[in-house]
Amino acid sequence: MVREFLAELMSTYVMMVFGLGSVAHMVLGDKFGSFLGVNLGFGFGVTMGVHMAGKISGAHMNAAVTFTNCALGRMSWKKFPVYVLGQFLGSFLASATIYCLFYAAIVEYSGGHLTVTGPTATANIFATYLPDYMTLWRGFLDEVLVTGMLQLCLFAITDKRNNPALQGTQALVIGVLVAIIGVSLGMNTGYAINPSRDLPPRFFTFIAGWGIQVFRWHHLRGLRWLHYPTGAPDIGESHGV
What is the rounded CA–CA span in Å between residue 12 and residue 148? Predict the structure, then answer.
């Protein structure tokens, strides 16, 4: 399982470096980034990750995908913590990489104040945060639906008994799928659809100076809730099945 652990680590690292880098361009770069660029960054980042680890671990790069495969008996539960640990470590290291690469730009943009909300917020480079118009439960249900759509389409792409993607094109088609989800369903929650994409970078920002606010959600009046879209993808993956 060492090879599978390293495969998940490296594939998730590659996906996240391209994805978070594209977000950094959108947040910090003014003319250099866009929402479409973010979707392409994550989409083709997934494609590169599948090419790196597809034949070794299946290139899940997503704890919810790993959970679903275990729940359906496609892989042993013994591998679940190995896969998830590899994914989380790869995602955390990618966050550290992007932080180092864009450190000067982050400091200049934020004036040296690392904030989660406000006009110069930079925590959203690393993790997803709900906009003001979204409630907690709407965000949760959004993640359930979108993650279910992801898993449903993944099964369709790889189902050899139906009409799968042509041999050798699966990585590209899966990357296109992620980009399509982003451009069509990504506005409400930032389509985390992946605990391995959101939780490790959130922990990184907590450690790197953004503080406990990265775990708090302030849009419920009078309440201070811990919020991160980690549970919804697991439910969404099962829903998609």
Answer: 20
Per residue in 125-146, is it b (16+ CB within 10 Å) or e — as a string?
Answer: bbbbbbeeebeeeebbbbbbbb
Evaluate whether 7 touches 49 at the Cβ level (below 8 Å).
Answer: no
The pLDDT tens digits for 4-39 are: 999 999 999 999 999 999 999 999 987 899 999 999
Instruction: Give the span between the Cα atoms of 147 and 70, in whole angstroms.
Output: 17
Pure H helices in 79-230: 80-101, 103-110, 136-158, 170-185, 195-205
Residue 216's pLDDT band (cuts 50, 70, 90): confident
User: Per-residue pLDDT tens for 219-228?
Assistant: 333 333 333 3
The average pLDDT across 92-100 equals: 98
Distance CA 225, CA 228 (A): 10
Q: Retrieve residue 224's tokens.
A: 């201070």
* Rg of the chain in Å (alpha carbons): 17
Residues 11 and 57: their CA atoms lie apart, in Å, by: 10
Using alpha carbons, list the distances in angstroms from residue 64 to 75, 143, 150.
Answer: 13, 12, 10
pLDDT tens per residue across span 183-198: 999 999 998 899 999 9
